[in-house]
Amino acid sequence: MSEKQLAGEKAVEFIQDGMIVGLGTGSTADFATRKIGERIHNGLNIKAVATSTATAQLATALNIPIVDLNEVDKIDVTIDGADEVDVTYTGIKGGGGALFFEKMVASISQKNIWVVDASKYVEQIGKFPLPVEVSPFVYAHIYNQFQDKGMKPQMRKQQKKYYLTDSGNYIIDLHLNTIKESKEMASWLNAIPGVITHGLFINTVDLLVIGNGSTTRIME
Ligand code: 5RP
Questions:
Q1: pTM of the full structure
Q2: Is the ipTM reported for this complex over the cut 0.85?
């Protein structure tokens, strides 16, 4: 079993009957979603909120009841993946382009569980390009601002067109190599008009499940 599968499936042990569950996006979160599907087949009774169209489609195929975020008062537990996470549990998400919905769902969740393979638990985040979701109305100006600051921006593309998020926005990936002042960086990005959100997640994680070899490491 891969480290991603080990981590994803382990996290599902924290799901109990009656919960509203946030379903993350990406290959590791998908393992959790599939396991939840299995448990539903065996009688588990939950409702779920999906963080992307792709996850909603997978969940529906697995007979997991999906509800709209606005129809629930709170989410009990969300299980999501990440691209990098450090010892302070500051992380980068959005490699799969779902960062906006992922951040919204995380903000409504009482408990956030991240599931990663061991390679993503790093001393210093930033090697993974930081995704910034931007409005198509003003993207070129934001891109130029990043360029002028030497942040090595790259428009994310798919089949030679700009990648479109589920909310109809573009993504600019910043190839920073290292991010030391993540709080300052997050505040600066949040203040740029036209930035919808960015992939820096700070003070989000309650529990980190790391797939490590043939076992898992759980960190609170
Ligand atoms: C999607 C994400 C994913 O959770 C992240 O990219 C990790 O993906 P994977 O589990 O496939 O490595 O943030 O926007």
A1: 0.96
A2: yes
